[in-house]
Structures
1.
Amino acid sequence: MANETTLRLTVSGPEASIADFRAAHIVENTNLGYAGSPVRLSFETFAAYPSGEGRNWAYKCWGSAYNAGYFEFIRDEPCLIECRFCAYDDDARPIFEAIARLFPDLSGTIEGEEEGGSYCLSGWIRDGGYTMEEFAWSREHYAKVHGRPYEDP
């Protein structure tokens, strides 16, 4: 199982669909997530967290133990959103599946890097579907996800 996974999501499509995606799922910072991280891409807008449910529900429905954290826009344009955020203890695959299902006219890419150096991810969203593959961690993919080179600790 992953630790913290940093994910870079790029989606593009018709201006109206990007506006709908933004309005439904990018929220003002009304609460703080794990470790006091602002929540902007809210997993709860895809599947509301039911009262009394625990992390097993979150893993199954969000692919993350907690809501998205450390959200930042890389590009925010009328026909394109590119953002980076973290998922906790997993890699948010149910969220990408929901984006593809709810917004079939959007297409895009998903790049990810597990903080412990266990693996990287790459995938796409297109025509109402999504795919994701895991592969060995690399400095090159780290740079692609984070937008900066990896620095040894």
2.
Amino acid sequence: MVKRVYEQGFLDILVDPVCGIVRELGEVPLPEEVPDSFHCVVASVSDPRQFSVWLADKIAGASGFGEVSELWAPAVGEAAERYCGNNIPTDLLRASPEELAAAGRSFLDPLEFPAFDESLFTERFPYQRYDPAAPILWARATDGEGEEILVPGSRVYLNWNQGSRRHEPRTHHIAYAGIAAGPSKDFAELAAFRECVERDVTTAWWSLGLPAQAIDPATVPGMDALRAQAPDFDIDILFLPNPEGMPVFAALVYHRGLRIPGAGFSCHGDPASGVWKALSEAFQVWISMHGVLEADGTGYRSVAEGLLSAKAYFPHQPDRRYLELAGERWENVRDLACQAQLWLDERLHPHLDRFRPAGERIALSEVPAVDMAQAWRSYRGTPSNRVATVDVTTKDIRLAGLHVARVLCPRLLPNFPSAFPVARSPRWKEHWHFHHPGNEDMRISALPLPHM
């Protein structure tokens, strides 16, 4: 259920084999087990390192159910998102929080964001403690009232420690959530915000063992047709209640013969659209895991071709016993790709019951729709939420009619590989007390999600 939101004309501007930001668009061949109605499209992105130290992702993609042609624009949109997110300005302000405060500048303090627990700072840990006295680089942003606010540049941009920033302090993991592209600034900001909420809610649900409400798949429009195309898959769908009252969904697909799981999540005001978005993610994760089932699978070939980092996956294990590689405290699970790969190890599969809670399933119609644009305006306009937005659109992308936004929500939890959990945040207790008021027996698990 792909929905068109872009004007197709921008593809003519951005896609060209010689001088396009995207050199090529192509549909990806999928395993025969995948439903016929599901498609993946990949955009091959030009390499700006030919003329700069600007590091852009080599590929971007989009997947979904429906017509392949509806995926071309979202794939280019994701390419634009990564392209702009990696274009880091050279004129960022360098100052310490104390200097900014003395100058009367408004800023988001790095201490406002979720942080690592002190126990993680060992010799092997790749990040260092944040020093509030040290000057850092700041990006200009807009707060919830439309006023200028400075935000840590490392929270805005991707692949931060490159080029002239190679020796900047490494105090946190990359901010995966909260950057999005769209046909308008408002669209991009809303998409980025929805992603922040999705990751916050799913991280808390999984790590705290919070309850969820199972949805009867038979009540989801179009599900009967999907099941007919994928008879060997078990499909589970959850609604995740949360403090913000926004519809967040989880989906698990599990192939009984190959014993491969894949999970997906979404935050969407329209429940049916949210479920299908989560299912799209789940099948995409499943396909990625199928690609590392064998040593010559598509995942390992992508690493060999330089399309993915050599550290993305664990070395292939014919017996699928990946837990031995993860480390006692998951310290070797440093990438979302290898985090999902762990779930090829069937010793983890009992934990998939989190997606199959006991009790009566509800109909999808029982989940209320939410006006997400209004929810975003309300959340952004609440001063205590400390929201900031950054327009990271480059001139060439803007000329094509696209916009890319970074949204910072320091109160919300990010997603992270299990080696880098952020245990220091009051947000954990907000989620816990929403489900268990008055109960202080909260424990945070670093068990990896079957998601990437």
